[in-house]
């Protein structure tokens, strides 16, 4: 039997890190790092406000930010962040999980995102896409005549493998 790496126990004896694959943890870490705007290891209201601003959403209500921060049992460090995602993702299917990720860029819930906007986000944030990867995505999922990406259809195809009629 191969020796197991020691893992830090989190109160209650359950280990949130065992809920996710290593690659997922890395992606959550990148998201956390992007959101932790002041790089202090915690996400607070100011970080959330700055993150929304970076995504082009200004004038977020204080109450909205407070509600988000209140979802956590205490200060939001990476472990708490991961635990919160684990709880939110428990029982969700992959399509719903992907849809929820896109909804961040679609606060009005229209089901479409400006193709130019999603291209810019994919090429400038976290695991940056190359121009070639963007071209491949838009070849598979061309924006409509208004320049919008139908992400609901995209999520369906990613998880079910074919387009809805």
UniProtKB/TrEMBL annotation:
Keyword Cytoplasm belongs to the record: no
Domain EF-hand, by residue range, is: 23-58, 93-128
Enumerate the UniProt keywords alphabetically.
Answer: Calcium, Metal-binding, Repeat
Q: Pfam families of this UniProt entry?
A: EF-hand_6
Q: Which PROSITE patterns match?
A: EF_HAND_1 (PS00018), EF_HAND_2 (PS50222)
Q: How does it assemble?
A: Myosin is a hexamer of 2 heavy chains and 4 light chains.
Question: What PANTHER family does this protein's entry cite?
Answer: MYOSIN REGULATORY LIGHT CHAIN 2
Q: What is this protein called?
A: MLRB protein
């Amino acid at each position: 039997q191969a020796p197991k790496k020691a893992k830090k126990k989190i109160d209650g004896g359950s280990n949130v890190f065992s809920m996710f694959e290593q690659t997922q943890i890395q992606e959550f870490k990148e998201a956390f790092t992007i959101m932790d705007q002041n790089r202090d290891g915690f996400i607070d209201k100011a970080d959330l406000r700055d993150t929304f601003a970076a995504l082009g959403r200004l004038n977020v209500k204080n109450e909205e930010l407070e509600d988000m921060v209140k979802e956590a049992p205490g200060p939001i460090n990476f472990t708490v962040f991961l635990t919160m995602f684990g709880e939110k993702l428990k029982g969700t299917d992959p399509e719903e999980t992907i849809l929820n990720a896109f909804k961040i860029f679609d606060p009005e819930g229209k089901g479409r995102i400006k193709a130019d906007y999603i291209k810019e986000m994919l090429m400038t944030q976290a695991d940056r896409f190359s121009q070639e990867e963007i071209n491949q995505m838009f070849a598979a999922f061309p924006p409509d005549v208004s320049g919008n990406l139908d992400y609901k259809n995209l999520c369906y195809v990613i998880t079910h493998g074919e387009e809805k009629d």
